[in-house]
């Protein structure tokens, strides 16, 4: 999520500091948020912390203070919307109620799916803002869209296998979770690669 918010804010403004310090601060934010989630069980505190850390990420970019606040709440709203859509989709696909969709194995995969959906929404905003792919052919655009769509389908299909594994069977569930993480990371790498290819093409056109 921290990386996703990094993409979100960087779509609207330039970084304030050098890349090395930027990455170091992002890693510190990830560490702090992960520790608090493990140690604090109060949802209100977790939400306030998420908003605070998201605002801290916004301070790494050259934004006016009111834009930082506005984009922070917008990013949080997108994350909340993704969670609601994911829970409703799981409830519909597996014929369970919303409460059951947020428990046990459904909760684990639901979290990954909702965060991935948030990433896709923000990636779409970034693609439109940066004009990435807009100069390409429709066929190329459809190929790119096929990657995240296939990832979502694979994750949902593997759901049937995942929910049959006992929740305390770490050995059985860990490979699946690693597979999901790998799929999501691959999508992030593809977006980054596309952006760099687009920038290289723009530089080449300018040189010509």
Task: Please explain how this structure is put together.
- With about 210 residues, the protein is mostly helical.
- The chain is built from eight helices and no strands.
- α5 packs parallel to α8 (about 170-205) and α6 (about 140-155) packs antiparallel against α8.
- The protein is globular and about 55 Å long.
- The rough form would be described as globular
- Main structural class: mainly alpha
Helix content: over 70%
Order of helices and strands: HHHHHHHH
C-alpha Rg, in Å?
A: 19 Å
Low-confidence stretches: none
Strand content: under 5%
How far apart, in Å, are the first and last alpha carbons? 39 Å
Mean pLDDT metric: 79
Number of helices: 8
The overall strand count is: 0
Give a short account of the largest sheet: none
Give a brief description:
The protein is mainly alpha-helical.
Topology:
Blueprint: H1 2-10, H2 19-39, H3 43-58, H4 65-93, H5 104-130, H6 138-157, H7 159-162, H8 170-207
Helix pairs in contact: 1-5, 2-3, 3-4, 4-5, 5-8, 6-8
Features:
single chain; about 210 residues; mainly alpha; 8 helices; about 80% helix; globular
